[in-house]
Design a protein that fits this description.
Layout (H helix, E strand, L loop, with lengths): L5 E10 L5 E11 L5 E5 L6 H8 L5 E3 L4 E5 L1 E7 L14 H14 L4 H17 L2 E7 L4 H14 L2 E5 L1 E2 L15 H19 L7 E6 L7 H14 L2 E6 L3 H11 L3 H7 L7 E5 L5 H10 L2 E4 L1 H7 L6 H6 L3 E4 L11 H17 L19 H8 L1 H7 L14 E5 L14 H11 L5 E6 L2 E5 L2
Parallel strand pairs: 1-4, 6-7, 7-8, 8-10, 9-10, 10-11, 11-12, 12-13, 13-14
Antiparallel strand pairs: 1-2, 2-3, 5-15, 15-16, 16-17
Helix pairs in contact: 3-4, 4-5, 5-6, 12-13
Bound molecules: guanine and fe (iii) ion.
Family: Belongs to the metallo-dependent hydrolases superfamily. ATZ/TRZ family.
Protein name: Guanine deaminase
Pathway: Purine metabolism; guanine degradation; xanthine from guanine: step 1/1
Length: 453
């Protein structure tokens, strides 16, 4: 029999569809040298006992203990890495004032590479400890610090997709925090792409450069066009913010007489590997354009409460065929946890359906059929994120990467209230009630990257 690099035995939860989970009870998970899942073996299979016999006394064999379960590692589709320095603060202003008062000043400090290293090292460690194995990051305008973030992901074993942020529009960006000029912005983006592609060769899990116009207001037409060309030339992912707030949405209508989606598409920025944050104000024809081009949404439900004054209609957009994943939007969203964001996604969808003003007549309060279940929120945090990025991640399935978190429901400091429930109920309790303490181990591409003692 072929030699596996790792064999795990235990029970796993993974998405079968946007609405259904699959429970793999007492399976064997056989991982190859490349950190990919080569084979799932059910207890009914003829080779089950044979594989256990062959591996059970080897270091490569990992039997989950009682009360432990496997989940796919989470995929966070929207993190502003420099904003980790202000997470949990500065949430009192609307988007435009928040950017200018707090956020551009803190991001400008990342010209200091030592400060950047402290913040980025702590952030990547924290996200791994929260079960997040793949992250789509905005860094800052600074090329060196952006490369450093990719290096820190590479070193800590996280699958980081990193963008050097482009901000060249002098009308919208402060003099001490923007690209020198359009030509420099494009030149440094190209140098950044080449450096990160080179760095990726030394990693097992991969790190990826991402073309990153911050959002339309911060970029000139020339920059947006040049970035579309660079993404095509180097076949990179693309990320930006799209139709996030009243102010931003209206700014784009004033400038282009169309919505963000169509404007971004005109510059070649909507394609299969494009991920747009928020999209709270997407109209139906914008959503259809997303579905046609394969563009995905990173849904950031905590952040949307503070900056969008709206709720993304996830159920409606899924019915239109749009790919959606989940994002923390650190620090517009204060929490580094996709557990917290999955919970907020469910809560916000319920508020959208039920309506928030009890003084209105019941029939006119909310938007029917808006609610999503925790199964769907779990899908967004895992398989939806993998689909959005077009990478084989987010599911515990053959030919997917071994990116997993081991949840321990019995540790004394954070024991879950389990009393002989069915496994689907155990899953729900994990999703609603677990805390970072319950995350025992985190693996990326077959490497152990976090362990709680
Ligand atoms: N739009 C442009 N920049 C940002 C940012 O940093 N956070 C959020 N939430 N929206 C943005
Ligand atoms: Fe954001």
């Amino acid at each position: 029999m072929k030699e596996f690099a790792l064999v795990f035995q235990g029970t796993a939860f993974t998405s079968r569809s946007t609405k259904e989970i699959e429970i793999l009870k007492d399976y064997l998970f056989c991982i190859n040298e490349d950190g990919m899942i080569e084979k799932l073996v059910s207890p009914e299979s003829a080779e089950y006992e044979e594989i256990i016999k062959q591996y059970e006394f080897k270091d490569s064999f990992h039997r989950l203990e009682k009360g432990q379960y496997l989940l796919p590692g989470f995929v966070d589709l929207h993190v502003h890495a420099p904003q980790w320095a202000q997470s949990g603060t500065a949430l009192d202003l609307p988007l435009y004032d928040w950017l200018n008062t707090y956020t551009f000043p803190i991001e400008s400090k990342f010209s200091d590479i030592e400060f950047a290293e402290k913040v980025y090292d702590d952030l990547v460690r924290t996200l791994l400890a929260n079960g997040t194995t793949t992250v789509l990051y905005f860094a800052t305008v600074h090329k060196e610090a952006s490369i450093l973030l990719a290096e820190i992901c590479a070193k800590q074993g996280q699958r980081g997709l990193v963008g050097k942020v482009v901000m060249d529009n002098v009308d919208q960006c402060p003099p001490d925090y923007r690209d020198k000029d359009t030509e420099t912005a494009l030149k440094e983006t190209e140098e950044f792409i080449i450096a990160v592609k080179d760095l990726a060769k030394s990693t097992k899990q991969g790190v990826y450069p991402v073309v990153t116009p911050r959002f339309i207001p911060s970029c000139t037409d020339e920059a947006l066009e040049g970035l579309g060309r660079l993404a095509a030339k180097y076949d990179t992912h693309i990320q930006s913010h799209c139709s996030e707030s009243d102010w931003e949405h209206e700014y784009v209508i004033d400038r282009f007489n169309k919505h963000d989606a169509f404007a971004l598409n005109d510059f070649g920025l909507l394609q299969d590997k494009s991920i747009m944050a928020h999209c709270t104000f997407l109209a139906d024809d914008d959503a259809e354009l997303f579905a046609e081009t394969g563009t995905a949404i990173s849904h950031c439900p905590i952040s949307n409460v503070f900056f969008s004054n709206g709720v993304l209609p996830v159920a409606h957009l899924h019915s239109k065929g749009v790919d959606i994943g989940l994002g923390t939007d650190i620090s517009g969203g204060f929490s580094p946890s996709l557990f917290d964001n999955a919970r907020q996604a469910v809560i916000s969808s319920r508020m959208l359906e039920e309506g928030v003003d009890p003084k209105l007549p019941k029939e006119t309060r909310g938007v029917p059929s808006s609610r999503i279940t925790m199964n769907e929120a779990f899908y967004l945090a895992t398989a939806g994120g993998g689909d959005a990025l077009s990478l084989p991640i987010g599911k515990i399935e053959e030919n997917f990467a071994w990116d997993v978190q081991i949840i321990d429901t019995l540790i004394p400091s954070a024991k879950l209230p389990l009393f002989n429930e069915r496994l689907d109920e155990v899953f729900e309790k994990i999703m609603y009630l677990s805390r970072p303490e319950n995350i025992r181990e985190v693996w990326v591409q077959g490497n152990l990257v976090h362990k709680r003692n």
